[in-house]
Amino acid sequence: MKNIVVLVSGGGTNLQALIDAQENGIIKNGRITCVISSKPGVYALERAKKHNIPSRVVARKDYSDAVEYSKAILAALDEEKADLVIYAGFMTILDDLVVKAYPNKMMNVHPALIPSFCGKGYYGLKVHEEALKKGVKLTGATVHFVTEVCDGGPIILQKAVEVGEDDTPEILQRRVMEQAEWKILPQAAALFCEDRLEVRNDKVYIKK
Ligand code: GAR
């Protein structure tokens, strides 16, 4: 059974999708053993509590810079004996020292079809604002392994979502979550826990 540690910073609807998948038996060979938040008081922590999942707050504001913060996160991940680390709306960029310690063991959900609308500065609602500004007809979500390159790691799963002419960023965000993020993030976690994800030459192959 793999230990899954989920990193959050906000409302935690993606965390909820993972909890539901665990409870519905979709994630077979793993359990969420800890939720770590970069902010105190966020609703994601309530979700963990409701489901008796231990949580920790490692607050970004308590650390002087990204390296010191990353060392604290790494120490927490090591203590939790994490086999898989999932960024589920985790809004803090970590130093490479964390990624190097967990190669192809950290995954992130991004609310666009990478390589569109991604990289530094593209997070949360901003991603959907930019998609609407460009007038794309399709957007979606991507789950990828985390590497040193922001939103640049090997792509595990993607799902497309239609953009409506009257969409606001909030409406589009909700549709992308419902139709894409909440589906592909648990699927990717399940595949990882079943040892079905293989990375070769920066590409992910899914074993049958
Ligand atoms: C989600 O849409 C997630 O894809 C996005 O933030 C939201 C968090 O919502 N993440 C990023 O933009 C990371 N670059 P949640 O807290 O309800 O899961």
Describe this structure in words.
With 208 residues, this protein is of the alpha/beta class. The protein has a single domain, classed as 3-Layer(aba) Sandwich (Rossmann fold), CATH 3.40.50.170. 36% of the residues lie in helices and 25% in strands. It has a seven-stranded mixed beta sheet with strand order 3-2-1-4-5-6-7, sandwiched between helices. The chain has a two-stranded antiparallel sheet with strand order 8-9. α1 (13-23) packs parallel to α6. Bound molecules: glycinamide ribonucleotide. Glycinamide ribonucleotide is lined by residues 10-14, 44, 88-89, 109-111, 123-124, 127, 177, 181.
Domain module count: 1
The name of the CATH superfamily reads Formyl transferase, N-terminal domain
Largest sheet: 7 strands, mixed
Bound compounds: glycinamide ribonucleotide
Structural class: alpha/beta
Look at the structure and give the CATH class: Alpha Beta
CATH architectural arrangement: 3-Layer(aba) Sandwich
Quaternary form: single chain
Strand neighbour order, sheet with most strands: 3-2-1-4-5-6-7
Mean of residue pLDDT values:
97
Explain briefly what this protein structure is.
The protein has helices at residues 13-23, 43-50, 66-79, 96-101, 125-134, 169-193, and strands at 2-8, 30-37, 55-57, 84-87, 106-110, 138-145, 155-162, 197-200, 203-206. With 208 residues, it is of the alpha/beta class. It has one domain: Formyl transferase, N-terminal domain (Rossmann fold).
